[in-house]
Amino acid sequence: PLVAPHPDALALVHSWLGHHGVPPASVSATHGGGWLTVAAVPVPQANALLGASYQLYRHAETHETVLRTLGYALPAALLAHVRTVVPTTHFGS
After folding, report:
1. Per the domain annotation, does 56 fall within a domain?
2. Lower Cβ count inside 10 Å, N or C end of the chain?
3. Would the pLDDT of 45 be above 80?
4. Where does the Peptidase S53 activation domain lie (predicted)?
């Protein structure tokens, strides 16, 4: 890849996830490590990780249900390294 995250940044994110009980086997990287996917995190654990309050939301017309939160937070040490966390606050168009 043309741009990849610094190894220290990846180590910091992995350390934070591990500190919160996310097993390394649940984390996979794509795009040269620039995108991390964390699989099978229960909602209560995601809420604790992100200071969030995930809830189910139902679209009034389509009746599609999505799991989202209205806000989340990351530790200050991660802010310079993490651009986005999904799914969180994006409900689509």
Report:
1. yes
2. C
3. yes
4. 1-91
Grouping H, G, I as helix, E, B as strand and the rest as coil, residue 22 is coil
Q: What is the pLDDT of residue 37?
A: 94
Reported as a pLDDT band with limits 50, 70 and 90, residue 2 is low
In a domain? residue 54:
yes
* Residue 8 DSSP SS3: helix
Give the residue numbers spanning the domain of 16. Answer: 7-79
Give percent of the chain above pLDDT 70: 98
- Number of domains observed in the structure of the chain: 1
Integer angstrom CA distances of residue 4 from 17, 29, 33, 54, 80: 20, 11, 6, 30, 14
Most confident of 8-12, 43-47, 79-83: 43-47
Of the candidates 53, 49, 44, the one whose C-alpha atom is nearest the C-alpha of residue 27 is 49
Read off φ and ψ for residue 78, nearest 5 degrees. -95, -15
